[in-house]
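Memo to structure team: turn this sequence into structure tokens by end of day. - J.P.
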Amino acid sequence: MTGGRGGATAGLAALCCGALTTLAAPIARADTGSSGAGVLPRTASANLDFSVTIGKLLFFRVGAAAYPTASAVQSSLVFQLTPAIPAVPTAPVVGNNQPVNWNGAEPSFAVSSAAQVLPVEVRSNAGTVSLQANATTPLSSGSATIPLSEILIASSDAGLPAPLVPAAGNGPSVAVTGTAYGNLVTVRAADWTFSYANSALRRAGSYAGLVTFTASTP
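Reply from structure team:
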């Protein structure tokens, strides 16, 4: 009986050993990341999406605001036409019954403050910038009017041209030349010189009107 029990014990030990061997083998393979003989190399990958958003910027100023430390202020331009009569020419004296040496020829009207200058600035990161002038309110004095096309503008920088002021409605647009990244970014400043054409005699009066300048991008 003793021998039988010993044989059973030996057999049980062998069985247990065999079971332990069978269970341990796959655990060893799972924990091994080696690329040694008989074991395939393993790789892992993960995808990560990136998104960058750059907002559009368009800044346009016509006038003497001290950007960026002061708020924009609407500028006004005043042209004064002063009569002169022949001969010399002579400027008439204001008042009633004033003596003047005049031969009766047609008087002329010279424009004082003929060239008035305003600083202009354009900043953008949105591609080509277009500028356009709109004759918002005609030059009017009572029932008399002067077409706004009498207002002429010259720019100190060909890259920041001044749009043509139309007699009425919207005028043609002009393009501002970009300064960086293939014209995608624009940082330009110039002086626009305004003048009054004075192409015809007008009825006396104080004429007021409004031009709206608009900058736009694609």
